[in-house]
Amino acid sequence: MCTENYDACYPDQPVVDRYLPMWAKLPAFASKPAFIWADDDAASTRTALTYAQLDAAVGRMARNLLGTVGSLRRGDAVLVLASPGLRLVKLHFACQRAGLTAVPVVPPDPAGFGAGGGPAHAHLLRAVSQARPTAAVADAGYIDSVAKTAASSVDGAGGDNARARLAAMLGSLRWLAVDELERERERERGGDGPVSGPEAPYVGCGPNDVYLIQYTSGATGVPRPVVVTAGSAAHNVRAARKAYDLHPGSVIVSWLPQYHDCGLVFLLLTVVAGATCVLAAPGAFLWRPRLWLELVSEFGATCTPVPSFALPLVLRRGRGHPRRSLQLGNLRNLILINEPIYESCVDEFVEAFCSHGLRATSVSPSYGLAENCTFVSTAWRTSESSSGHLPSYMKLLPSARLSPPPSSAANEVPEIEIAVVDEDTGEPVEDGVEGEIWVSSPSNASGYLGHPSATREVFCARVPGRTGACFVRTGDRGVVRGAERYLYVLGRSADVMALDDDCGGGRRRVHAHYVETAAFGSAPDRLRGGCVAAFATSSMPWPPSRAGVVAVVAELQKGSAGGGDHRGLCDGIRAAVWREEGVSVGLVVLVDGGVVPKTTASRRLGLQSFL
User: Fold this and answer.
1) At CA 34, angle to CA 29 and CA 37, rounded to 5?
2) Spatial separation of the C-alpha atoms in residues 285 and 37, rounded to whole Å
3) Where would I find the beta strands (DSSP E) of 247-403?
4) N or C terminus of the chain with fewer C-beta within 10 Å?
5) In 405-551, which residue ranges form alpha helices assigned H by DSSP?
6) What gap in Å lies between CA 282 and CA 182, rounded to an integer?
């Protein structure tokens, strides 16, 4: 896909923050909402932030970060722990305008610091030790709680080195309250903070400056810190803007976390497009999934990004007790942002809500990863150039269409290039042959912070015959099929199970998510969605009696653990997996909720304790 500027109304800027003053000074945009925060309370509170207000607030916070409040210097790393909301939006842009490197992290519960904490606390320790931030920005109340619990943790840590280390690191940081950064202060004479005004030079992040440390999801290992420059982020959101045909008339609804990946990128994408984005807390969606569609209806949203698990969650829990009727006819982009994307799941969702105006042509299966900022591709095209029908392969919808659109020049080189290659040789495979997905573009991140060997392995891949082009190895497996060269993302390489073929002999490769989906489908009323894990024990250090066995670990819904026919449930899982995928399951383990790890790496580590 080409991201060249396609309309004089959208002048490309080298960094995303440069778009803000451009929109703010236009009369039509000064009073236009850039972001709206939607609370799911009894009053349905809505708080708007216009482009002019956002630009002024960003300038004010940037001055305070570099002035007497923060006393930071350009290039310093800042740990961002503010609560989700409009303040966090301002802070993201303020860090870029101040020339700082933002390290956004979901703020863990301060009470956990004194009790050893959990995964969120471990991730905070990881971020502080790797990014070495100069300061941390959070809500005033959160700072007070951290100070109290960190102090008590130091006193009571004993032999708990992790607790003591985290407490010491938090105590050494300069803590800044968001409230203080928002206040207007008389600018000190001779201060080095950003100066506002039409003639003021821009002193924020340049295109080659690191503006973000974005952690990977940790799907196949410990989350890694990805180094993102302001220029690569700007390229990425310009590519996404054109791919989804976003413009100032677009209205986006997002409840995604604002700390990383798609949730963060859609903040940038909103400003680049001059659009309006309605934000809600992820917890509000999980508590009441129908809220998402109610916001789409209320604001006439044209675009909304969601993980694919949101669709069955709404179908299971979002139909009853509606607060408002739905009208989804304005929606052009129902962006599905993670894999696998099952055709049956999407079809069921569209059928359920087509009477409310939802169109199949709005379905936008997409692909992305942190190592390419976020966005890589989408299979969606505007209705003028597409019938809206997407083919499927192995039950999945495609996440990219690699053939150029009809309006493109025949020799046009895509700025985000996708190749499917033999992972051992780097040679491109023929269409129809499964291989590893590699991505090359100006959106490629610079590498992993503090991991030079992993950076060379992942970010410096070469395709034979492509002199000078570096590719990112995604670790995902895919296949290209059809005249329009649709890309199907089949799953993670680390999740592939090599199994004996019970029918034809030899070995075959099965992606674990197929087994997991079939297992859950056998009893969706008793098992927790997204909480089923499948493993091939042939790659694990098991005793000979368990070698080569496919194991399924499934979480039971609340109320199901204490009663019911568990043996029948296990037999049903085995039968469903054999019927759907032709895979023989040797072991089924039923566990309580919250037990199954959500990542491949942690599943491998925890498997032995399950079995």
Assistant:
1) 150
2) 13
3) 251-254, 276-279, 303-306, 333-336, 363-368, 375-378, 400-401
4) C
5) 452-459, 512-521
6) 24
Cβ-proximal residues to 173 (8 Å cutoff; 6+ apart), any chain: 79, 128, 133, 134, 135, 136
Residue pair 226/214 in contact by the 8 Å Cβ criterion: yes
**How many C-beta atoms surround the C-beta of residue 8 within 10 A?**
6
- CA–CA distance from 563 to each of 213, 570, 572 (Å)? 47, 14, 16
The answer for residues whose C-beta is within 8 angstroms of residue 459's C-beta and 6 or more apart is: 371, 444, 445, 446, 447, 448, 470, 472
The percent of residues in the chain predicted with pLDDT above 70, rounded, is: 83
d(C-alpha 551, C-alpha 588), whole Å: 6
Structural contact between residues 97 and 207, judged by C-beta atoms closer than 8 angstroms: no
Of residues 566, 434, 588, the one with CA closest to residue 519: 588
Are residues 385 and 405 in contact, defined by beta-carbon separation less than 8 angstroms? yes
pLDDT digits (tens, 9 = 90+) for 302-328: 999 999 999 999 998 877 666 678 999
CB 29, CB 9: distance < 8 Å: no
**Quick check: 416 pLDDT over 70?**
yes
Furthest CA-CA distance within the chain:
81
pTM for the structure as a whole: 0.91
Q: How far apart are CA 107 and CA 103, in angstroms?
A: 12
Grouping H, G, I as helix, E, B as strand and the rest as coil, residue 159 is: coil
Ordered domains of the chain (ranges, CATH): 16-287 (3.40.50.12780), 501-610 (3.30.300.30)
In whole angstroms, give the CA distance from residue 474 to residue 471: 9
